[in-house]
Each structure stands twice: as C-alpha cells, then as structure tokens.
Specification:
- By secondary structure, the protein is mainly α.
- The chain has a single domain (2-392), classed as Amino acid/polyamine transporter I.
- 82% of the residues lie in helices and 0% in strands.
- It has helices at 2-21, 24-37, 41-66, 70-77, 81-112, 116-130, 136-161, 166-174, 181-192, 196-206, 215-245, 255-293, 300-304, 306-324, 328-353, 356-359, 366-392.
- The chain is globular, with a radius of gyration of 20 Å.
C-alpha cells in the first residue's frame, strides 16, 4: 500500500514538473524553432534533454537530502540569497502565469467560441477549485496526471497524421546543419528554468519524500518528469516538421494551432484547443503552487494559509490579464530571465551539495557535480550571448 502511495506521489511530482514546463510558451517555442531550424532542431532538443536531466538530478537531490526548500538552502549557503532567488522566481512565475491564464482562455475560445477573457476566468476558476479542497496536493497530482496524459495522446496522434520525415529528423539530431544557442537557452530555461526547476522537488518534500533513503525515488521522479516533457516536445517537433515538409505555411499569429489544423483539419484545430487548455491550466496550477512554496517559509501566516495565498496568486494573474492583456515583452524577457536564473540557482545548489552543515555525511556524486558545473558555465555563457544579441538586435 505504501509503495502504491509513493508511486502516486512520485508520478504526481513528475507530472507537476512536466506540465508546469508545457505551457503556451512551450508549444509556441517548439513550433517556431522547428520552423526556423527544420530537422536540425532535433539536436537542440537532444542537448536540452541531457542538460535538463543533469539540472533536475542535482537540484532535487539537494532538496531531498537537506530536507529544505530551495530558498532555505540558498539562505544557508549565503544569508539573503534565498530571499533574492525567491523574488526572481515569484516575479518570473507571475509573468508566466499571466501568459498561462491567457493561453487557457485561448484554448476555451477555440473549443467553445467564447471570448478569451471569459475563458481565462473560467480556467482560473478551475485551477482555484483544486486549492479549495482539503486534500489539494493529491487532487493536484491527479489533475496534472490526467491532463498530461491527454496532451501526450493528442500530440502523438497529430504527429502520426502529419507523416513527418522521421529518418531525416534522426540524422539531423546527431548531425545538425545549424546550431542555435538562443534556442538551447530558451528550451532549457523553459523546461527547467525559474520556478519549474523546483516544482517537483518541492512537491516531493511537501509529500514527505525526503532524506537519503528516498534518493532512488527522487531520481526516478526527476527523470520521469523530464521524459514526459521531452516526449511532448519531440512529437510536437515531428508534427510541425511533417506539416512543413508538405509545403504548408504556418499562421504567424498562432503557429502551434496551424500545425494541428493543417495536419488534421478542423478536427485538429479543436484538438489544439484541448491541448492548449490542458497545457495552460496545468501550468497555472504548477506556477502558482511553486511560486508560493518559495515564500511560505518566510512567514508562518503564509504557510498556515498556503492554499489561500495560491488562490490569491491565480486571481492576481487573471486580473492583470483581463485589464492589461498579455504583456508580450514581459513574457519574452521573463523567458530570457529564466536563462539567467538557472545558472544562479544551480550554482547555489551545487555549493549546498558539499556543505556538511546542510547535507550531513551525504556525498554528492562527483559526476553530477562536474556535470552541474558545466551546465552553469554553459548556460551563463549562452544566456549572456543571447542577451547581447537581444540588445544588439
């Protein structure tokens, strides 16, 4: 019975991480980069998967062994650092949640023809409903699992009907004709950057999966989360590639919707509505939950009324969207910011991994440390290069 319960928690954390990553921005980025890089985008996806797994294993292991949330770990490494990181995480989480709420509204608009703003309010109400029940954590796990599985099934179907050039994609994944650093930074930042890095790790901690004895479970959950997000990315890449190979042109106003519609007609367009709604609502849940988990250790009142603070976070995001709209520039810069937040947070976790006062007699694997350091340096360099290009452009 205990094993079954643990598997439910592990899958819940994995799906929370994966569905937090797979939001409206994820769908658009994957489609746009496939359009610009073609089959060579497969290499970017492969490299990002390797980097993602390295990041998650380092971060989740430190959280589990220290039995502390990331902000508390950071404060133990350097007083005040946790508050600074929490500020960046919550700011980025709020920015993305505005986009997530808008994406959910768009999904309902495609499905039912209702105004996007009304759809956003309905979607926010669905997300809020999860945190109104006593067992919100368990309901959140089940909610993300069901919608995550639904997204995977629908995107696999669209990839199949688009008849993508699988052989060419496989070749270019190993031998790309073009490598785009901005795409790598965006993908890694969008999959394990900002709040997403900690979504599953904090969920496991809240569910009591912690300590050295739980490292096997933590590793399984972390790899599962990356695998789930990667499956969605890969099949959306293949679906887009199949549509483009047929000489069809994507609508620049909504590239991912074009892929679904061009691949499967009006039925495909409705499927896009389901996928967009599922991706957006689960991201609203993941963003709100994880953002609040970063501030609840700073004030007992937040921890005592956590669910109500999460609800307030969703309400604020929705209100901003209704009255201001989706601030495109804010979302673009928030995505780039995630590319910079990742090296800072990962470097902090790596320092913590070797701090005896935090980790006791635990010894962090040297290979993971080395890999983590390489990711920090690589992401800092690529993020810096991307920023200079943005400024120069």
């Amino acid at each position: 019975m205990k094993t079954q319960r643990n598997w439910s928690v592990l899958l819940g954390a994995a799906f929370l991480m994966a569905t937090s990553a797979v939001g409206p921005g994820f769908l658009t980025q994957t489609t746009v980069f496939t359009q610009s890089l073609g089959a060579s985008f497969g290499f970017v996806i492969l490299l990002s998967i390797v980097l993602d797994i390295g990041v998650q294993l380092n971060v989740w292991r430190v959280i589990a062994v220290s039995e502390k949330r990331a902000q508390d770990v950071a404060n133990a490494v350097l007083p005040g650092l946790g508050a600074f990181i929490a500020f960046l995480i919550v700011l980025g989480g709020l920015a993305f949640n505005i986009g997530n709420v808008g994406g959910a509204g768009l999904g309902l608009h495609v499905l039912a023809g209702i105004p996007v703003e009304v759809g956003a309010v309905i979607s926010a109400a669905i997300a809020i409903g999860i945190f109104l029940v006593r067992e919100a954590g368990k309901l959140m796990d089940r909610f993300t699992q069901i919608l995550g599985a639904l997204m995977i099934g629908l995107i696999v179907y669209v990839a199949w009907v688009s008849s993508p050039p699988v052989a060419e994609a496989a070749i270019r994944t190993i031998a790309p004709e073009e490598v785009d650093f901005a795409a790598i930074v965006t993908l890694v930042g969008g999959t394990v950057g900002g709040y997403i890095t900690f979504a599953g790790g904090h969920r496991l901690l809240d569910a009591g999966v912690k300590g050295k004895e739980a490292l096997g479970q933590v590793t399984a959950s972390a790899v599962s989360g990356i695998s789930l997000a990667s499956i969605i990315r890969i099949f959306l890449f293949l679906a887009t590639l199949g549509v483009l190979q047929q000489g069809k042109i994507l609508n620049p106003e909504n590239p991912p919707a074009s892929v679904f519609e061009l691949a499967a007609g009006s039925f495909g367009y409705k499927l896009f509505g389901v996928v967009m709604l599922s991706a957006a609502v689960t991201s609203v849940v993941g963003s709100a939950y994880t953002s609040v988990s970063f501030i609840k250790s700073f004030d007992k009142r937040i921890a005592e009324h956590e669910n109500w603070v999460i609800i307030g976070f969703i309400v604020v995001s929705t209100t901003i969207f209704i009255f201001i709209g989706k601030p495109v520039k804010l979302l673009v810069w928030a995505g780039l910011l995630n590319g910079f937040v990742l090296p800072v947070t990962l470097a902090t976790m790596l320092l913590a991994a070797h701090k005896k006062s935090l980790m006791g007699n635990y010894r962090h694997p040297k290979l993971l440390t080395l890999f983590g350091v390489l990711v920090v340096l690589l992401m800092a360099w690529m993020a810096g290069s991307t920023l200079l290009q943005q400024i120069g452009g």
